[in-house]
Amino acid sequence: MPEQATRGPLYRALLERGVSRRAFLRFSAAMTAALALPPAYVAQIVGALEQAPRIPVIWREGQDCAGNTEAFLRASDPSVTEILLDILSVDYHEVLMAPSGLAAEASMLSTMESFPDGYILVIEGSIPTAEGGVYCTIGGRTFESIVREVAEHALAVIAVGSCAFDGGLPAAGAGPTGAVGVQALVPGARIINLPGCPMNPANLTATIVHYLTFGRLPATDTANRPYFAYGKLIHDQCERRSHFERGEFVLSWNDEGSRKAWCLYKMGCKGPATLANCPTIRFNEGTNWPVKAGHGCVGCTMSGFWDQMSPFYRRLPATPGFASDVTADQLGVGLVAVVAGLTVAHGAASYARRRRAVARERMAALPAGAAATAETPAATAETPGVRDGPVDAAAPAGPEGHEKPEPTEGTDA
Ligand code: SF4
After folding, report:
1. What pLDDT is attached to residue 308?
2. By alpha-carbon position, which residue is closest to atom 5 of ligand 1?
3. Do the two domains 3-230 and 232-413 of this chain adopt the same fold?
4. Which helix (H) or strand (E) holds 54?
5. What is the pLDDT of residues 344-395, one digit of tens each?
6. Ligand 1, atom nearest to 272 Cα
């Protein structure tokens, strides 16, 4: 029996499009990794995708810059064409579809009628609600009314980008349009938020693959962000982390530390307070992400980041409202300054570890009798050069940016 006859519509479409078995397996492995699943799940994802239906997608765009569409167009594994036409089956996307005007609207209505309760709605951009929603109208209708109507019968609503998450830039400061995110407009809908400026398209595809494989949407935090993509702090996955541990910081653009790719914390990096998988998924076919390219994280996956995370080039302050969802979901503590506190604790722990290591080295160098005397905590604390000087004394006379993490790191403005 031909292979196509035993497979589901999605896999048949991939075969017809010339996608090789090797590319399909590579894609499945990449999705397993994106979902933060062990390699043992690759077979399950392969099996599910082989039999999966093609889920129709309606992609509506409101008050935004189209940055998420741009990111989507640069998706890889598989190529955007394969995602568009085979896996996601995007039936409506104002930027990417051939029809326009009334024909485009007819295409969307046709999808809604053909797949009642069976399509996925992707929303890009914020939704203006001031003045009756007149700040964004499409085909004579407000975007607000369109979202309400299409979301009502959607299998799930995926809000891509920071604007669709919580209003983003249009909602920052005293934005006049009354911009809100999807979950504020249709709180009863099944919503997955993929914030970011822009979102990572791999997270969108992985969310769909999770649904096709396990028959349910991925687990989320209280902000409806999937744990697989927003479950860890950027700081804990960053390739510059070892420099943070060693107290090696960039202190000005183009100094020696920046040329050596040291930690960007003192240049305002918000990685210690930001949840996202950017360091592992990366952008542009997995080649790079902001911190690797030399710019600090601006915290764009967090609530109200334009207001809460700025100034972007000042080191983390304990700003009210800072990373409040981190404290609620990750730490179970209601204090908004916990993330900054963690950074303090982390700096203090690194400093203490360094002191202990230096003290051990000095003790080992002492004569046997002197070492026995110095082993009491009090004696160690009072040993000249151990309490006050060993870290600085032991550290190489490095460049300007080579500093030890002080116990007060992360709390100063
Ligand atoms: Fe990476 Fe920023 Fe953390 Fe430094 S502060 S380790 S650059 S995430």
Report:
1. 93
2. 265
3. no
4. none
5. 444 444 444 444 443 443 344 333 433 333 333 332 332 222 222 222 222 2
6. 3
Q: Which CATH superfamily is domain 3-230 in?
A: NADH:ubiquinone oxidoreductase-like, 20kDa subunit (3.40.50.700)
CA of 224 to the centre of ligand 1 (A): 25
User: Residue 277 above 90 pLDDT?
Assistant: yes
Q: Where are the domains of the chain?
A: 3-230, 232-413
Torsion over CA: 339, 341, 344, 350 (sign) = negative
Burial code (b: 16+ CB inside 10 Å, e: under 16) for 290-311 equals: bbbebbbbbbbbbbbbbebbbe
Query: CA 133, CA 316: separation in Å to the nearest integer?
Result: 36
Q: Specify the CATH architecture of the domain 232-413.
A: Irregular (4.10)
The set of protein residues with a Cβ atom below 6 angstroms from ligand 1 is: 234-235, 238, 240-241, 244, 263-265, 269, 271-272, 291, 296-297
Q: What pTM did the predictor assign?
A: 0.74
Q: What pLDDT, in 10s, does the model give residues 292-338?
A: 999 999 999 999 999 999 999 998 864 444 343 333 333 333 323 43
The alpha carbon of 401 and the centre of ligand 1 are apart by a number of angstroms equal to: 14
Cα–ligand 1 centroid distance for 290 (angstroms): 11
**Per DSSP, what are the bridge partners of residue 237?**
none
Strands ordered across the beta sheet of 90-93: 90-93, 57-61, 120-124, 156-160, 191-194
Q: Which of 264, 298, 300 is the best mutation target for the ligand 1 pocket, counting ligand atoms within 8 Å of the beta carbon and taking the most? A: 264
For 94-128, the pLDDT digits (tens) are 777 777 788 888 888 888 888 876 889 999 999 99
